[in-house]
Known about the structure:
- The protein has helices at about 5-15, 20-25, 35-40, 45-55, and strands spanning about 30, 60.
- Helices cover about 55% and strands about 10% of the residues.
- By secondary structure, it is mainly alpha-helical.
Amino acid sequence: MIVIANASPLVALSQAQCLGILKALFGGLLIPSSVYRETVTDCPITLQKQGILIATNDFIQVE
């Protein structure tokens, strides 16, 4: 199954330190580069930025 996510679930789950739920449910997921930019590159919230960055090195693929 291919799962594509927008920013909202990534923001909420990263701030709750629960991004692993997405990996457990789906194994992996795709996000558009615009979502990566919104949630990591342009984001001032360190916790969110770090969580999503770590996840992109594990199970989130940026397209």
